[in-house]
Automatic annotation (TrEMBL):
Superkingdom of origin organism: Bacteria
Identification of the protein by name: Bifunctional GNAT family N-acetyltransferase/acetate--CoA ligase family protein
One Pfam family matching this protein: ATP-grasp_5
Residue stretches making up the N-acetyltransferase domain: 31-185
Coiled coil feature spans: none
GO MF term set: ligase activity
Keywords annotated in UniProt: ATP-binding, Ligase, Nucleotide-binding
Matching CDD domains: NAT_SF (cd04301)
Source organism (scientific name): Kribbella hippodromi
SMART domains: CoA_binding
PROSITE patterns listed in its UniProt record: ATP_GRASP, GNAT
Domain ATP-grasp, first and last residues per copy: 680-718
Length: 900
């Protein structure tokens, strides 16, 4: 088997490389989707020869045994705009094709042909998604198709896509017609399909029936020997094979050995690769020929070594995906699955964790081993574990899709060094967090650093963006690995809190004070006075206090602190604590004999001998216990909040905005800042009125413009170097007449030192707006995150302190409400020190409109509502800045499924 060539020659002019995508099929295997080229003629003919006569009849409505040369030329020569064909390939074979052809200004006819052996794998839905996305980009809004009545599979492709499909029966043919604009329903259908297929692709890796270690060695201390031993000693019940081209022996470490994987007599589901980097591509081809379903590449020598390694890594991933395989790594520690009947330890760690309900994803191999050791020391069992190394293919997004439907996993832990696709991460993690707690630690937040070997787009956004994205998605963000495991220890064993009020039962005044201080800093409330017992309190003393707090309806959570007297009665105290908590739905955390785990005395054993739900975790000190409880409480509040929705904005004219952007880019192909008139026009499509501002170059012009406006105006310097200067007044308000204007002009030109050249200050005259609190709303198109919306109050102090909130659109009603309320200066909006409260709903509405604009129009790379006055009567937008530029790199999360 050889590596597939996408093209015999360079792609033709106009070939849209952005339409290429690696995709996951319904059964979890991968394939490559791309536009057709004239060089695909032979590929098309071979494909058509394998298609059944019935499928050909369904496609052409008549017997069509073979394609003529004219057919082949027509089908392979397209303009990629009005006529587009996308093909799906596995290895060096085409298995499906879909195409559209424009039939009107906004309409195109669509058709598909799938090889019979690959029907039922979801190719039709994938092709439809990608064709619809391309058609929308090329100005089309509606697809039509003709389908024979008994072609039920194709009818199903259309009806299950989530679009509103209209059907008519005419002359023995069903006429199908539907708009291709994404809808909540179609996007929901896509997400559900994406989750199922990506979860299956990970299940193929985590639940193999047979494993081969390629590069296995007899020599102790080598990677190949360690991998083989760990698989064998971890209790893997399936078939295990050793592959080493340098050995002629029949077995290694008691495992059957073969020179190549092709010579293994049975099927192989998973290959663990530990050979030199330059040999990996040949190994991938051997695995493809053997029908291997997935790879764990432990080998180093890829992107972490520089340009040569990056090219080698890209080739590895493209080659594996083209043959239907997912890849963990390269430079990976490996994967673990503790499920009964699997017991898979395909890692370099000799430690096989105990079975549990916590799943873990990390990227660092060096960190993976101590993480496993730390979890074992805490008695925290694992369901599954993946350390992905360079994360060239399988990422945390894929694992979250798997854990979403994995019944063995109740809590998910993520140690993230980079985010390859932040938009998809936000979407997938939010969906998972709605079902299971997700605890995340992101390293490199302060520097936005990217580890060597991880090929990701480097964001220019501040570190606070990550924290805001975590909050938006319901993730539990932590700062240390210790905190990561503290919160996991609580959530794996105890229920979620139903409120913020916490009762403390303690026999140490000093530790009680530490707990109270931590609660105050974390936003938790004391439920009455702590139950402070004597240092030598007995088990019955604890029992009485515990029965009171568990019976108190005002108590939502309980913290128990027990430090042993000289004569320890810990066992008896543990018994009364366990008994008191057994029938309660209130979470309990403890500092019990300063242990850091689930003490034996507080453990409810599960069927595997581990700690079941209801076990009471212990922390080294009450600060850790309360900190974990605070994180769990915040997450519980996020889960309890009423369902949020993306509001309808019926007055938004998306088509008008799209046409304006297209027309603007025709005038400015390289992109440009918009002038006042263009800004007004663009924002009007999204229902954002702006108070007009009129540039003036002299006192006479300023007087004339103010007179036209009927005075009651302002004179404002808009040049960036003078805006918001604390030592200069850039705005002169309450100009009532000509004398006021001339005085304002003289004073401001003198203050700014521009009397001889007023143009430097960029003065404008503007009608006075109603008084209010000034706020700023901005969006930026980041190369990594895509569009991000920012909110804050205006002012130098706000800028200096970074008091901003961030969210990724689309914004739900909850998102907008939280953005306004979480900035530290928010009290100024709610009547601070006797001022009038402003119209918060008007701010939220403006946030939704800006969010919708930046989501619809990705060419709007920067939008600033630089001065918005908010009063009790609403908002007034005074000053804006907008930049439009062509897309240099398309957004990573689109309405069409793809691996990124």
């Amino acid at each position: 088997m050889t590596a597939p060539d996408q093209y015999d020659h360079a792609p033709p002019d106009g070939y849209p490389v952005e339409y290429e995508a690696d995709v996951v099929l319904r059964d979890g295997a991968t394939a490559h989707l791309r536009p057709i080229t004239p060089d695909d003629a032979a590929l098309l003919v071979a494909f058509y020869a394998r298609v059944s006569e019935q499928s050909k009849y369904y496609r052409f409505f008549a017997p069509y045994p073979q394609l003529s040369d004219r057919d082949v030329a027509r089908f392979t020569q397209v303009d990629y705009h009005d006529r587009l064909a996308l093909i799906v390939t596995v290895g060096d074979e085409m298995i499906g094709v879909g195409r559209y052809e424009r039939t009107g200004r906004r309409t195109a006819e669509v058709a598909f042909l799938i090889e019979d052996a690959h029907q039922g794998r979801g190719l039709g839905q994938l092709l439809l998604e990608h064709l619809a996305q391309a058609a929308r980009e090329n100005g089309m809004a509606r697809f039509v198709a003709e389908v024979l009545p008994d072609n039920r599979k194709m009818i199903t492709v259309f009806t299950e896509a989530g679009y509103k499909v209209a059907r008519e029966f005419e002359d023995g043919v069903i006429m199908v017609e539907f708009d291709i604009a994404p809808t909540d329903t179609s996007f929901g259908v896509m997400q559900a399909r994406e989750q199922r297929s990506e979860a299956l692709s990970i299940a193929r890796l985590l639940t193999p029936g047979s494993v081969a270690v390629i590069g296995a060695s007899r020599r102790e201390g080598t990677i190949g020997n360690a991998l083989l031993r760990n698989l064998r000693d971890g209790g893997f019940p399936g078939r295990l094979y050793a592959v080493n081209t340098d050995t002629l022996v029949d077995e290694i470490e008691g495992v059957p050995a073969y020179p190549t994987i092709r010579e293994v007599p049975d099927t192989v589901d998973l290959a663990v690769v530990a050979v030199k980097a330059e040999m990996v591509a040949d190994v991938v081809l051997d695995c493809a020929a053997k029908g291997v379903r997935g790879l764990v590449v432990v080998s180093s020598g890829f992107a972490e070594i520089g340009d040569e390694g990056r090219q080698r890594q890209r080739y590895l991933v493209g080659l594996a995906r083209s043959y239907g395989m997912r890849v963990i790594g390269p430079n990976a520690l490996g994967l673990i699955n503790t499920a009964t009947g699997v017991s898979l330890n395909a890692t370099l760690s000799p430690l096989m964790p105990s079975k549990g309900r916590v799943a873990f994803f990390c990227q660092s191999g060096a960190l993976g081993v101590p993480i496993l050791a730390d979890m074992a020391g805490r008695g925290l069992g694992l369901s599954s574990f993946v350390s992905a190394g360079n994360r060239a293919d399988v990422s945390g997004n894929d694992l979250m899709q798997y854990w979403y439907s994995d019944e063995a996993t109740e809590v998910v832990l993520l140690y993230l060094e980079s985010l390859g696709n932040p938009r998809k991460f936000s979407r997938v993690s939010r969906r998972l967090a709605g079902r299971k707690p997700v605890i995340a630690l992101k390293s490199g937040r302060a520097t936005q650093g990217v580890p060597v070997g991880q090929m990701v787009r480097r964001s220019q956004l501040p570190p606070a963006t990550i924290e805001s994205m975590f909050r938006q998605s319901g993730l539990i963000g932590v700062d240390t690995t210790g905190e990561l495991f503290d919160v996991a220890q609580l959530l794996a064993h105890q229920p979620l809190p139903k409120g913020r009020r916490v009762a403390i039962v303690s026999n140490s005044d000093a530790l009680t004070l530490l707990a109270l201080d931590t609660m105050a800093g974390c936003g938790l409330e004391a439920a009455g006075e702590p139950r402070n017992l004597r240092a030598d309190a007995t088990a019955s003393d604890f029992g009485l206090a515990l029965s009171e707090v568990f019976a108190d309806e005002k108590v939502h959570s309980v913290v128990v602190i027990y430090t042993p007297p000289v004569q320890s009665n810990g066992g008896e105290v543990a018994q009364v604590l366990a008994a008191a908590a057994a029938d309660s739905e209130k979470p309990v955390v403890s500092t019990f004999l300063a242990s850091r785990s689930v003490p034996e005395e507080l453990r409810v054993p599960d069927e595997d001998g581990g700690a079941a739900r209801g076990s009471i975790p212990s922390f080294l000190n009450p600060q850790y216990a309360v900190g974990a409880l605070a994180k769990a409480t915040q997450y519980a509040e996020w889960r309890r909040r009423s369902d949020s929705r993306i509001p309808d904005l019926p007055d938004v004219d998306t088509a008008g905005g799209e046409d304006f952007v297209a027309e603007f880019l025709q005038r400015h192909p390289a992109g440009s800042e918009l002038d006042e008139a263009d800004r007004q026009r663009l924002l009007s499509f999204y229902g954002i009125p702006v108070l007009p501002a009129f540039p003036v170059l002299s006192a006479d012009e300023a007087v004339d413009r103010a007179a036209d406006l009927g005075f009651e105006v302002i004179l404002k310097a808009t040049a960036e170097q003078w805006r918001m200067r604390p030592d200069l007044a850039d705005i002169w308000r309450h100009i009532h007449d000509e004398d006021d204007m001339r005085a304002a002009w003289a004073e401001m030109t003198h203050t700014f030192g521009v009397a001889s050249d007023p143009a430097r200050a960029q003065f404008v005259v503007q009608k006075m707006a109603p008084p209010g609190v000034p706020v700023v709303i901005s969006t930026i198109e980041d190369v990594s995150f895509g569009p991000v919306v920012t909110f804050g109050l205006s002012g130098v102090a706000t800028d200096l302190l970074g008091d901003r909130s961030y969210r990724m659109p689309p914004l739900t009603t909850r998102d907008a409400a939280e953005m306004v309320r979480e900035v530290k200066a928010a009290p100024l909006l709610y009547g601070y020190r006797g001022s009038d409260p402003v119209d918060i709903s008007a701010i939220e509405d403006l946030l939704h409109r800006v969010s919708r604009l930046t989501l619809d129009l990705e060419e709007v790379v920067r939008l600033d509502l630089r001065s918005v006055l908010v009063s009790a009567q609403g908002t007034t937008v005074l000053d804006t800045r907008v930049r439009i530029a062509p897309n240099e790199k398309p957004r990573q999360d689109t309405p069409a499924r793809r691996l990124t």
